[in-house]
Amino acid sequence: MKLTMIVRPQQHWLRLIFVWHGSVLTKIFSRLFLNFLLSIVVILMLPWYTSLGIRLTVAPFSILGVAIAIFLGFRNNA
Predict the structure, then answer these.
(1) What is the pTM (predicted TM-score) of this model?
(2) Is residue 65 part of a domain?
(3) Is there a domain that residue 68 lies in?
(4) Which alpha helices (DSSP H) does 1-78 contain, by range?
(5) How many CB atoms lie within 10 A of CB 23?
(6) Three-state secondary structure call for residue 3
(7) Residues 75 and 68 sit within 8 Å (Cβ to Cβ)
(8) Residue 48, Cα to own-chain centre: how many angstroms?
């Protein structure tokens, strides 16, 4: 019995970006679309949020990012 390897034709990288069949996009499209809609809502609500006088700085996001990085580091090394 001779085993052969599957060899696919070489395609241009730009054509590979827009491949739909066999892509993971078919599985995550609904989540991706929901994330897109949520970001549009956030962008549209930004003027209203800033009119309330609430100022959001980078500090809480930096602290949260460091905490998540530490937890993921321990998870990978366990």
Answers:
(1) 0.52
(2) yes
(3) yes
(4) 13-17, 25-51, 59-77
(5) 13
(6) coil
(7) no
(8) 26
